[in-house]
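[audit] Reproducing an earlier prediction to check determinism. Same input, same settings, fresh worker. If the tokens differ from the archived copy the diff job will pick it up downstream; this log only records the rerun itself.
[audit] input (348 residues):
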Amino acid sequence: MDSSLVTEEVMENPENDKCKECSDSDRYDGGRRKSSLLEDGVRRRSSVLESRGFPTSEQQNSSKITDDYERKRASVKRVFGFPISIPFIISNEFCERFSYYGMRTILTIYFTKKLLVEEEEATLWFHEYAALCYATPLLGAIIADVFIGKFLTILFMSMIYIAGNAVMALSAVGQWGLFNKESSYDNTTGFWDHVPKMWGPLLALHLIALGTGGIKPCVSSFGGDQFKTSEGVQLQRFFSMFYFSINAGSVIATLLTPELRGMKCLGEATCYPLAFGVPAFFMVIATGAFLIASRWYIKIPPLGNPLIDVAKVTWATFFGKESPEKLYGVSHEGLSFLTHFHRFSNIF
């Protein structure tokens, strides 16, 4: 058979064109379904924001201020072009970082030299504490986004932080019966050596890890909430000052706290109560500075956390306790975990 005839027959076969059209149609329908899922999520997210008093995208692009939060932002007094609450937020961050790094700088020395813990065990406790400090921000973010908002999360976690610092400083006063493990007197130097019990520092470290983790994800975003949508330049300058305060607090604390530890106090050759007490005092100042500006803050209510939403969809998809249709108002067709993850990543 002539090859040209075969080619013409294949080209003229309507079944081939029909299959090609079906394939193109299937791809188009699949893309349209995914697009509709994304659009549905964006619409629902916008409706939730609008119902809670937040501006829609059209309102944000409008020159006329129609949102309550924007009106409050516009009415707040400015200091050097910034909302009056911003210096208090930056001061809070400076003092909190001073407290954190001041205590952390001498922590390993405190375990090995004062508590007489083996170096391996001291390293274990130090790294457990550091790991908790970087894990608990997930908990703090969920509490702020889902339950009580950023302001109350920062406030309550700061109180837990202060409690941890207080326990750390008080437990370092080894001669007190509640914390004293053993005591000895050196006739040569004329100093006492009081060894505190381990439960005080360990309790303090866990409280501090919870407190700093609850604060960490909230303060910077809470500061950003204070600015109007048109204040992009001021917002960039705020974050520059904010991160400068972080580094300034950590550097000063790292240099100062070892000097405080080397002082003599309470009949001992070292002064761990003072070295831990100064960071505790700075944490009290941080919380006080944060509270002073309470009446000027823009306090946005919790809007929900994408991790919680993804967890709900995953549970509904794999275990069927709640259908995706019940959770999100869309059909189950094409509603996989990856689709939900992609949808929420685009929304946020």
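[audit] rerun output stored. Observation attached for the diff report: The CA atoms of residues 43 and 347 lie 10 Å apart.
[audit] end
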